Amino acid sequence: MRILIINGGPHKGNTWRLTEIVREILYNFDKTIMFDEIHLSDIDLPFCTGCSNCFRKGHVVCPHNKKMQPIMDMIEESDAVIFSVPCFQGHLPGILKNFTDHMAFMLHRPRYFTKKALIISTTGGVSADSTTKTLAATLPGWGFNKCYQLPITALSWNDYKPTEKDLEKTTNLTKKFYLDVKSGKMHVPGIGVLIPFNLFQAMYVGNKGEKEYPTEDNNFWPKYKGMRYAPGIPMTPLKRFLGWVIYLVGKKLSKTMIITYKK
Ligand SMILES: Cc1cc2nc3c(=O)[nH]c(=O)nc-3n(C[C@H](O)[C@H](O)[C@H](O)COP(=O)(O)O)c2cc1C
Predict the structure, then answer these.
(1) What's the pLDDT score for residue 214?
(2) Ligand 1: nearest atom to the Cα of 10
(3) Looking at 159, 183, 207, which one is the last position of a domain?
(4) Do 96 and 202 lie in a common domain?
(5) What integer pLDDT is reported at residue 208 of this predicted model?
(6) Cα(75) to centroid of ligand 1, in Å?
(7) Of all protein residues, whose CA lies closest to atom 13 belonging to ligand 1?
(8) Average pLDDT, stretch 63-85?
(9) Which three-class secondary structure string do you get for 181-227?
């Protein structure tokens, strides 16, 4: 099992300390786990410029692709990703938000269908849960199959020492995450991911729409033609039916609604 740990904070503080505890718990469960680490603060990723190259021409022509591609490849090569995310103003720290902005094209062209995530956040007093929820709402858009959330109130600005209760919560959740990743079991997707998957497919397969300013989505979706979700991911009959309904709505919409990528 390969687990990538992404430190989405600007330093190694309370949240990183808790993340190291999670890593130790995982290692005690299974000494064969291979861990990789990325500290976003080491990458010096410039701000997303909003050039839209990723949407229009593909992420490989992002001006920051040299910095982004290795991280994307490391996620691809992992079974699961742990995100270590301090709570800043009830949200993701800017350094992580900037990273997710560079990945926003995946909401149009998802890919990490077999990946699972554990999102860890600590807060001084409030909103660790809104921080983990924000990222947990984003990752399924990139394709992630399941997100576990560990929000912890540290009551500390840089001297967090987990209480017995925190350790128990951390151990229980880490165990759930580990067993799920180990099982290789894929979960049925929620309606929130069936909507973009089927809408975008309906709008971009066989419908070039805007010819003067085409989008990379036109090249991406044909490989999923006729599929209501990614291959290998289980679907219930109800979800398949809902997928078709969303697809048909998308087909109807695409006749009148042409999105232009003209800049
Ligand atoms: C820029 C900044 C913003 C913060 N915002 C909040 C907040 O909205 N709510 C809160 O309760 N604590 C807030 N805190 C406190 C941190 O969430 C808390 O100390 C957390 O454990 C820090 O994790 P870290 O040491 O990994 O950076 C903030 C701290 C900083 C530096």
Answers:
(1) 76
(2) 27
(3) 183
(4) no
(5) 57
(6) 27
(7) 124
(8) 98
(9) HHHCCCCCCCHHHHHHHHHHHHHHCCCCCCCCCCCCHHHHHHHHCCC
pLDDT digit string, tens, across residues 233-261? 999 999 999 999 999 999 888 888 777 77
Spatial separation of the C-alpha atoms in residues 11 and 41, rounded to whole Å = 7
Q: Which of 183, 213, 243 is the last residue of a domain?
A: 183
193 CA distance to ligand 1 middle (Å): 31
Q: What is the pLDDT of residue 211?
A: 66
What lies within 8 Å, CB to CB, of 121 at 6+ separation is 15, 85, 86, 87, 128, 129, 131, 132, 149, 150, 151, 152
Instruction: Name the band, by pLDDT with cuts 50, 70 and 90, for residue 117.
Output: very high
Complete DSSP assignment for 93-136: -HHHHHHHHHTGGGGTS---TT-EEEEEEEESSS-HHHHHHHHH
Q: How many angstroms separate the CA atoms of 116 and 150, rounded?
A: 14
Instruction: For residue range 172-204, list pLDDT tens digits in order.
Output: 999 999 999 999 999 999 999 999 999 999 988
Q: Indicate whether 262 belongs to any domain.
A: no
Q: Is residue 46 part of a domain?
A: yes
How many domains does the chain fold into? 2
CATH of the domain at 112: 3.40.50.360
Residues 239, 146 within the same domain: no
Q: Which domain holds residue 212?
A: 191-256
**pLDDT above 70 as % of the chain:** 97
Q: Which ligand 1 atom is at minimum distance from the Cα of 156?
A: 19
